[in-house]
Amino acid sequence: MPQEIDILVSEVGPRDGLQSIKRIMDTQDKLNWIKALAASGIQEIEVGSFVSPRLLPQMADCAKLVSETNKIDNLMVLALVPNLKGAELAVAAGARKLTIPPSASHAHSIKNIGKTPAEAIEEVHRICKFRDNLPVKQRPDIEVGISTAFGCTLEGTVSEDWVIEMAGLLARAGADSIGLSDTTGYANPAQIKRMFRRLRSEIGDEKMGGAHLHNTRGQGLANVVAAIEVDVSTFDSSLGGLGGCPYAPGATGNIVTEDLVFMLEAMGLNTGIDLDALIASREVLLRGLPDEVLYGNVPEVGLPKGFTYAAKRNS
Ligand code: ZN
């Protein structure tokens, strides 16, 4: 049984973080890292992506990672799938939850997957039909995160009306949950509040997904607080902000899991995660990727004196 928590921290480092790193991390090193993350209390981890290994050699071991990490107790394993073929491979590997990233930006969508947003929504529909035809026990949960929902490096401003309309279309296509992704680090807290409010009124509580935020412009944690204020309860982040941002030196990629967990716990929100164990898992990651640059303030300076976990304070 998963522990009672207030906020689900979904670790995406093994996918989003590693995706932008050229040198290939060994499968066993990835497994050791994922196990260390799970042992710290992380309850959901995106372990990889079922894309063509020709395009992304780093993700070639995704099937093996899914089947191995499925054996870890109290862990929901997520796999990214860009299309139906990826979904078929993921299900064959035993994936119980899939995440699909259609893009709201036309230019980004074409560049990324060679499909228009409308075609990408149709692909989500196909994946949902494929799921519906599987035996009940094999049916994965299907999460969708709308990419470039807050702006796009190619197109600039992305229409907020269109993002919300797209969420409605994806809900009708059969997705179980729909969240919003700040793929490019463009979002600000006011926009986050407005968009997640609109998302909820469009798709309802039941299909509300989480926030996938990048810290490219330093707005990451401010955006988390804004999202919490409108009752978003799932956040993606990566250990050490792995992946960085090649266009903004010093800026992390995804928001840093260690800093996120610290902030949530300090605010009295239970994550179920042990910060010492989480910070120690950086060493396990570095064993697989020696000398990789990791970010994060809390791992740098440590926990404040007298720090108490939310669960302890609330009990
Ligand atoms: Zn991302």
What does this structure look like?
- The chain is of the alpha/beta class and 315 residues long.
- The protein has one domain (8-314): Aldolase class I (TIM Barrel, Alpha-Beta Barrel), CATH 3.20.20.
- The protein is 42% helix and 13% strand.
- It contains 13 helices and eight strands.
- The protein has an eight-stranded parallel barrel with strand order 1-2-3-4-5-6-7-8, surrounded by eight helices.
- Zinc ion (ZN) binds next to loops.
Distinct bound molecules: zinc ion
Biggest pleated-sheet summary = 8 strands, parallel, barrel
Looking at CATH, which topology would you report? TIM Barrel
Name of the CATH first level: Alpha Beta
Number of DSSP strand runs:
8
Strand residues, percent = 5-15%
CATH homologous superfamily? Aldolase class I
Q: How far is the first residue's CA from the last residue's CA?
A: 20 Å
User: What is the helix/strand order?
Assistant: EHHEHEHEHHEHEHEHEHHHH
Uncertain spans, ≥5 residues at pLDDT below 50? none
Annotation field: number of helices: 13
- Shape estimate: globular
CATH-level-2 architecture: Alpha-Beta Barrel
Count of individual domains: 1
Helix content: 40-55%
